[in-house]
UniProtKB/TrEMBL annotation:
Keywords: Membrane, Transmembrane, Transmembrane helix. PANTHER family: BNAA05G37150D PROTEIN-RELATED (PTHR31111), F-BOX ONLY PROTEIN 8 (PTHR31111:SF37). It comes from Capsella rubella. InterPro entries: F-box-assoc_dom_typ3, F-box-assoc_interact_dom, F-box-like_dom_sf, F-box_dom. Residues 47-87 form the F-box domain. The keyword Membrane applies. This is F-box domain-containing protein.
Amino acid sequence: KEFNIKVLGALVKLVAMVMSLALISSCQWKKKSSKAMRRRRGGAPEIHLDLLIEILTRLPGRSLMRFKCVSKLWFSLIRSRCFSNHYLTVASPPRPPRRLYMSLVDHLECNSMAVCYNPRESALLLFTSSSSSSNNATSFDQDLTLPGMGGRNMKLLRGLILYIVCRRACIYNPTTRQSVTLPAVKSNIFAQEDYRKSVLYFFGHDPVLDQYKVVCIIVVSSKKIKRITSEHWVFVLEPGGSWKRIELDQPHIPTRLGLCINGVIYYLASTCMSDDIIVSFDVRSEEFKMIQGPPLVSAFKPIDFIEYGGKPSVFDHTRLRRKGLVELWVLEDAGEWSRKSLVLQPCQMHLVNKYTKWKVKGTTHNGEIIFAPLLLCSPYYILLYDVQKNDLRKVRIRGIPKHWFRKPDTNLFFYFEFMDDSESIMHLEI
């Protein structure tokens, strides 16, 4: 069955390539006599649009970008929102099965709490599983960096990447190599003289109305979080979009990067009264909701907020290096928290170096939790932890440009995200 699927995928790709060559050839023959052209058109059978769509949706995204020049029909079809959504739902063997994106940022003053006056260097690297080595090796595939792109707090959603540069949100499609920068939020909140100022962005998608929305939260707070002032803004990613302020009488400080699950954005936050609040934002209704976090969990404790089993979860690994203990708190559908405690197998304790500080960088599409060292050193390894099997494995990341390892630790930030099995060919326009 697997062999037949591969053969079918190869045949479909071959048919599409033959079709494109035929159409290109027909365009080149337009300078010939109209009589010969009519004979050529009369002898070529037309392909039904439904069949054409089924063929195109089984091609890699890079090929589709080239095929937009075949004809006006193909150009309009490939750029249409309906086709791009259909493309996301079709699984195709020619597409890469696993893609690990790594964002490297060397911005001395470019972060979510200070305006960037002197940006330095950024890179977006794509890694794929090496077919020539074991499953414990991931190799550098290509550099997707564009001039002026790259930033902090990288988040992936349905094939699109959100990152922050100089307090402004940028959306990048690695398949189409297209990037857009959202306009700055017009807020006067930073005029207040206070201790801490920050701008954070979250990325969500409404599956009902098929809308992408960016949420911006601007926060000014006093020392020791005794006073918080926050503003909440929403931007619909569409032509002519603009920022709209959402009124909320519960000021808070987001303390973790957000997750978008089934049309709802979740993130960990702190208020003046509590530091263990989960905030949810319904992308369609644009309504905020406060949820009590799990017990004994603090927003300022070294824990991580991840998606596990399609649900928002809090992962506590503060005792992993010393005792091999981890705790996973999962927010169930009824609003209650379920707890799962795990003890790492003794034979795997050597993988958790006691002298290395680890940070959770998200989860893979298979549900494995990604651990990465806080410092970028060579040779570079990450750990993948399977909670269901209670299994930990070590994966080496090869091909990172050597000059990144020589940068000062105080200026270097890096982020990992696993892309799901689908690519996005959505055309970005604001």
